[in-house]
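User: Hi! I'm a student and our assignment asks us to look at how structure tokens line up with a sequence. Could you show me two examples?

Assistant: Happy to help. In each example below, the sequence comes first and the structure tokens follow. Example one:
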Amino acid sequence: MAKARLKLVSRRTRRLRKIKRRIPKGVIHVQAGFHNTIVTITDVRGQVVSSSSAGNCGFRGTRKASPFAAETTAVTAISTVVMQRAEVLIKGAGLGRDAALRAISKSGIRLTFVRDLTPLPHNGCRPPKKRRV
């Protein structure tokens, strides 16, 4: 009895994700790390509308860090949302940041602004000592 209930819940959530959501204005967050790229789309209040990552799109290992994976991730996240205008916030120094931004601009959404939120230390922690090989 409990297993049947769990299957119903999982099917229902899967179906809900595929529905296109309409928002007039949103925020696209791109987190480009050295090993993965995560694209999250929120409304203006900050509630998540759609999300996708390179691993979620089927990439594994070093291919997750590629620009192509970032582009596919951005297209997948945008495909479930219909919006006219968006702000783009990019964080991280990975290879996928430019590719994801290119894919977002090609999608037809009008970008109000693009901001880089990459955390930079103001000479915070002491770096590890030099390697002696």
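Example two works the same way, sequence first and then tokens:
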Amino acid sequence: MAVTFSDLHTEQGVKSVEEHLAGKTYISGDQLSVDDVKVYAAVSEKPSDAFPNASKWYDCVASQLAKSFPGKAVGVSIGGSAAPAAQAEAPAQAEGSIPECLILVQILVSLLFVDYDQAPAADDDDDMDLFGDETEEEKKAAEEREAAKKDTKKPKESGKSSVLMEVKPWDDETDMKKLEAAVRSVEMPGLLWGASKLVPVGYGIKKLTIMLTIVDDLVSPDNLIEDYLTCEPNNEYIQSVDIVAFNKI
């Protein structure tokens, strides 16, 4: 239902807005609308503290309208009079009618709330290319940017490393074949066991030297030793493991 306000330049008119806004944020609905801006345009100045609802509403509308006009305002006053002939012909302005400056505000409001989705499309013949054709340099730069984007999407290949380990038994009674079998039983993505040989240490004890290739992002040598080679059940044969050489491939 339409709401009617009158004499909004008077205290009685502002009082009617105050009463209407009791328990409300906006004139109509729960969002800023053309109704709010029309009433705002008709109110000559911010309502006093005697009208808390209207004063709060006035500040809210002013704040939202300011976002649509980001330029810094210094304040203006509009004056002047019509030419003598025009004054003689024009009827006197009725008391309480909306000044011309407020009519301008309403025109701006109509521009702010225009529904561009409903606006008719311009004829193709009227289209204007404001920026002209794209130059060769611009095309080349655009192609390079697209190529750079595609390169960043390509998965990067992980590096590989070659590792030489020394695996030591508990004593000379340790079965070295079972020890090597325990080492090679460890399998995981990115791990490839290579050549191996037994090297005498002394007192009848031998150690196993073994090569392995790892994918750096998938296998950690320290993790391989601590969580697989020197823990159960492999620690039945393996006393310790040392990394002798580590080379990037």
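Here is something you could point out in your write-up. The CA atoms of residues 19 and 53 lie 8 Å apart.
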